[in-house]
Write a structure and sequence with these properties.
about 250 residues, mainly alpha, about 0% strand, globular
Length: about 250
């Protein structure tokens, strides 16, 4: 049998619901708009316009990577801003395809997974390849072997926290900038008509190359492969610097 005190949490829940219901109805009477419509028009719609531009994507990606650098999961931290934009963009692209129109919203979950977070945050898969090519550090090679399969599936945590990349000033430049550079490459491919904004997203955990193929066709595979190769070359000088750092410590 429940006591009165067990029902006390219902009181603030009821009051909050009551206040927002009355406030929402008063707002509708006064403005002719529902409050969710007003928030969308004033906040989300302008934000979508900004985020669907090159500058908006770069800002979003760099903020995410800087958060990763200090040990915060960047993707989760920006999800409150990012995810509604992704959902709205995909819905717009699906609607466009259904009506026989070319979709025009580039930034979706498919874009993020296919070109921004390939191998996880900061193009960790490319770092692993660079370590296999040029690293002389046994500890880095061990972490790379451990992290290669997760990275193929888009999971970067074994390397981000194992190498680590968190608070690692040697790797900060490629770790922060690789995803931004890859985003610009993908946006350029869309601007010249090589890629079309996707109307099909793939779930998290689909292997690299295959995820790009599902969302963008063979053109997506080509662009993703180019981004991976360029990111490998971005990582290589810093892997070599890390080799010298290990020698100095010894």
């Amino acid at each position: 049998m429940y006591s009165f005190t067990s029902r006390l949490p219902l009181i603030p829940s009821f009051l909050v619901t009551l206040v927002f219901s009355i406030g929402g109805e008063l707002f509708h009477i006064a403005s002719g708009q529902y409050i969710n419509q007003f928030i969308y028009a004033v906040v989300q719609a302008p934000m979508e316009n900004v985020m669907q531009s090159n500058l908006g994507i770069i800002i979003l990606v760099i903020v995410s990577q800087l958060l990763w650098f200090v040990g915060i999961h960047g993707g989760q931290a920006i999800s409150a801003i990012r995810n509604p934009i992704f959902v709205a963009a995909l819905a717009a692209n699906i609607s466009a395809v259904s009506n026989g129109v070319t979709p025009d919203q580039p930034l979706t979950f498919g874009f993020w997974r296919s070109f921004v977070a390939v191998g996880g945050a900061g193009y960790v898969l490319s770092l692993i390849i660079a370590i296999f090519i040029a690293s002389k550090r046994e500890d880095h090679k061990a972490i790379a072997k451990l992290g290669v399969l997760p990275a193929i599936l888009g999971i970067s945590e074994p390397v981000v926290f194992g190498l680590p990349l968190v608070m690692n000033v040697i790797f900060i430049i490629p770790f922060v900038l690789n995803s931004a550079i890859a985003s610009l490459i993908a946006m350029f491919a869309m601007n010249i008509g090589f890629l079309t904004p996707n109307a099909v997203d793939v779930p998290f955990g689909i292997p690299v190359l295959f995820n790009a193929f599902v969302s963008y066709g063979w053109q997506g595979v080509v662009v993703q492969a180019i981004c991976i190769v360029i990111s490998v070359f971005m990582w290589l000088p810093f892997v070599l610097i890390s080799n010298r750092e290990d020698t100095q410590e010894i």
